[in-house]
Structure prediction request, 956 residues.
Amino acid sequence: MMSKHLMKTCLLAATAILALAEAPAFAAPLDDHFQHPPMEARPRLRWWWPGDAVTDEELRREIKLMADTGFAGAEIQSFTPNFVTLTPDEKLRVNQYAEPSFFAHVRTAADAARQAGLTLDYTLGSSWPSGGGFAITPELAFTELAMASTEVKGGEAGPIKLNIPKRTRRLGALSFLDARVKDPKVADWGKRMDARARTVAVVAVKGKAPVLQPSAPGAMGLTLTPWRDVVTAGTLDPSSSILLTDKMSDDGTLNWTPPPGDWQIFVFRQYASDVGVLGAAGQGPQLILDHMNPQAFATHAARVGDPLGKNPAGIRSTFVDSLELMQDIQWGPELLQQFRKRRGYDLTPYLPFVVQPGWMQAWAEHWSPPYFDTPNSDLAERVRADYRRTVSDMMIEGFIQPFVAWNHARGLKAKFQAHGGAFDTIRGYGLADIPETEDLPHEGDPFFMRMARSGAHLYGRPIVSAESLAWPNRPYEVTPDEMRRRIDALISGGVNSMILHGYNYRFHAEDWPGWHAFQPSPFAGGFSSMLNETNPVWPAMKPMAAYIGRLQAVMQAGEAVVPVAYFYGRYGYYIGIEDDGAGKQAAEKAFLAGGYDFDRINPDSIAHARIEGKQLVSQGGQRYPVLVLPPIDGIQAETAEAIARFAKAGLPIFFTDRAPSRDEGLAQARQRDARVKKAIAAALKAGAKVVPAAGLTDSLRAAAIPANLRFTGDAADLYFVQRRVDGRTATFVYNRGQADRQVTVTLPGAGGVTRWNAMDGTATPVSAQAGGQGTDVPLSLKAGESALLMLDPQTKAVTIPAAAIVGSVALPVEGWRLKANGHVQRKPYAHDFASVSLKDWAEVPELSRFAGTATYSRAISVDAGWLTMGTRVILDLGKVHDVATVTVNGQSLPTLFSAPFRVDVTKLVRAGKNDISVAIANVPQNAMIDPKDTIYKKLKPVAAGWVGPAKLEAQR
Prediction:
C-alpha cells in the first residue's frame, strides 16, 4: 500500500490547480479507506438461488466473481424460479430447500466466502413472509379477523339474518395448483385450517354506515383486502354497544329484536389466513407462520436455521425480508386476552372502530378515514391507538425478539426489515443488529430511509443496510446512471451498507439472458435490476462497487451529526400516515431546507434516553441538541412525563403548532389525561415552547440550536447527511430534483474544503470563504448530481480559480468502424460495420433490437501544443447509452457508467495520430422485445448506443 506521503504526492499531481491551494491534510485511516474501501464498507449482493438447484462448483465460481468485482459478500435468498419451465429433476432439486443437501451447499458457499475474505447473510426461510414446509402446520399459521355488517331498523322483530364474513381469498396457501399440497401427510390440512375459524364476537351498535369509495382492483389483479376506502366515516354510539355473540346460530340467524334506532350489527370471525409464503421453495405447503406466536418462530427456525449450527464460518447474519402480511384485520388468537391484560379493558365492544383501510395493508399502505368514528368524541381514535399498540407489542414479543435472540444464541447477527410491519417501526429496526430498509417503496425516498437510520442511531447500531436498486416493472432497462442516482439517494437517506438487488445464480443460462428472479410474467411486469454477467452492462459493476464502497467508508466512519430528534409515536409507517394521506412531508422538507438533519424518535427511545449537557442522549449513544414534536393531540402519559423531565434538565423542546393535550389511549383516560396535561404544563414552565410549523427552523436558530449547515439560494430537492470524523466534517449533498441547483453551503466552523470524488478516490480543494457563521462554499449541482465535501479545520479556506478551456476539437460524427457482439431478440448476434455515425441504435436497423457491446474505433489527431506541462486533455463522449470503456493507444481506462461521460486521457495521448476505441454496452431491454411473445412484446424500446457529440478539450 502506498505511504501517506506518496499518496498525497500523487493526489497533488493529479490536478494542476492543486498547486494553487493549501494541500489537504490526509489522515489515515479514513483517507486510505476512501481510496481503497475496506471489506465492511463495500456493497453486497442479494444472491437469488433457484431453491437447491445449485452446484458447489458454480457457487465457488460466483463467490470468486463477487470478490473480484469488489463486493463484500452476498445475501442468500432461495426460492422457486417461477415462470421457468423446469425438468422433473430440477423441480425435485429446487424443493430440496432446507434439506441436508441444501445446507451442504450453504456451507460450501460460506466456506468459499470465508476463503475470499467475504461474508454471507442467510435469509431465514425461503422467500417471504416467514414460514413454509411441514413445520408450519395449520395450528401455527397466522390468523386474521374478518368483519361483516348488517344494517337494521329498531323495532323490526327478530330473528335477523346476518351477513357473515368469509375468509378473503388471496394467494391460496393450499392451492390445488401446487403439487406439494397433494402430499398424503397434509391431506387433512384444509380441514385443520377450517377448524381454526370461529366467531369472535357479534356486536350491535347504534349508528350509521360509512360512505365508501367504489371498489378498486388489487395489485396484479389480486384481492389484497376486502375493505374499500372511505369517503365519510360512519358514526357509532359506543354507549349503545351490545354483545350478542351467544344469540347467533351457526347459520347466521340472530335471535334478537333491536330497540328503536338505526343499528349496525357486526360479526367478527377469526380465520387462518389464506395466504402462502410468496414463491417459496421447499417441501410441503407454504403456510405463513403466526408472527405473534414465539413457538411458531421457534419451529420455523428449527427447520430453516438450526442446521447451520453455532458460529457458522463465513456467515455474518440471518435475515428476515419484508413482512408483507396480508390480513383483513391484524390479529392473533390471543389478542383479546392480551389486550385486556395490557390495556386494562375489553376490546370486544369496540372492535368496529379498529378497521381503517390502508393501515399497514401489505403492498398498498395508504391513508383512508376509518370505517367508523364516534361523533364529537375521540374515543374511537383512542381505541385504535390501544389496539395498534397491542398488535405492536405482540408482534415484537412473538417474532422480532425471538428472531434476534435465536441469532445471538448462535453467534450470528440479526438483519431485519421493519417497514411494512404493524408495530413500532423504529423499535423494530432498532432491535435488529443490522436494521435494513429498501428503496422499492416510494422510489428511494430519503425520508423513508431515515426511519431505519433513526432506529440505528437510537439503539446503537452502526450499520444501516438497504435492499437497493429495485424498480417496479423495469427488470431489464434500468441503466447504471439511474443506479448511481439511486445510490446517492440512499446515501442521502442515511444508508451506509447497500445490498444490491440482485445477482441471479447462473441457471438456464443457455436461454439468454438466463433466469432472472423477477422477470416479467403473465401477472406483472417484473422488477429489480438484473446484476449479473449476462447483463451487457456488467462491466459497470466493478467501478460502481468501488463508488459505493468509497461513500460507505465515509458514512461508516466517525459519528453522525443529527441535531433534531423529531417525535414519532405511531405504529407502522408509510408516507402520508401523519397528514391524512397528503404525503407532503412538510416538516421533513423544512428541516433539511433549513439546514437541520433529523431522526425520528419513538416513545421507547424516549423512555430509555437521558440528558447530558442539555442534550438528549439515546440508549445507543446518539446525541440530539433538541427535541421537536409534530402537532399531535394524544401521547402516552409516560412519554409526556419524560419530556417534562427533559425540559427541567435543560433540553430545548419545541411543540409544533400545539402541545399534546391528552393520553393516546382509552384505558384510565381521565387519570392519564390529567398526567399528560400536568407534564406538558411542567415542560412549558421549564422552557419548552409551542412554535408555528411555518417558522420552526427559524425558531431553532433563534434558540441557538446548532445546524448542520445553511443553504443560501434555492435548496429545493437537496438532501444531505453529515458526519464528524477525526475533527473533520464530511457533508454529502444530493440533488434529487429535476432542475439544476446553484447554492452557497455554509458549513459549521472554519477550515479548508475539499471535494471528494467517489468515482476515483481523489480529493480536490474547492473555493471556500470564511464567514461569520462558518465556511461558505459555492456549490452547483446538476439534476441527479451529488457532492461529498470535507471541511478540515487544520487547513484554511482558499479561492481556487476555475480551470480554463484552452482548446476544443469536435470528434467526427461519421466514419467510425463498429464491431457489435451481443444478442438480437434473445439470439446471438455479431456484425462488423465498416463505417457508422454516432447516433441512437434505434436509427440503425441491425441494432434497433440489439443488446450487448459495440466497439467504435478510429484514429484521431492531438495537437502537440496540448501536451505542455499543466495542461489536461479531456475526452467528452457526450450522450452515452449506457456504459463506455475508452481505450487510447492500446491502454484502457476505467469503465464510465454515469453522466457526465468524461475522462482524462492526458497520460495516454501523444502528439499527432492516436488510436481510440470506445466500447459501448447497453441494457438488455431492446434485445428482450419479442413481438411474438405475449409477455415480452409488452416491453418498450429504450435509447441505446453512442449519440455524442464527442469532443476533446484542453484545460489549464
Summary: Residues 1-27 have pLDDT under 50 and may be disordered. The two ends are 31 Å apart (CA to CA). Residues 740 and 782 are 4 Å apart (CA to CA).
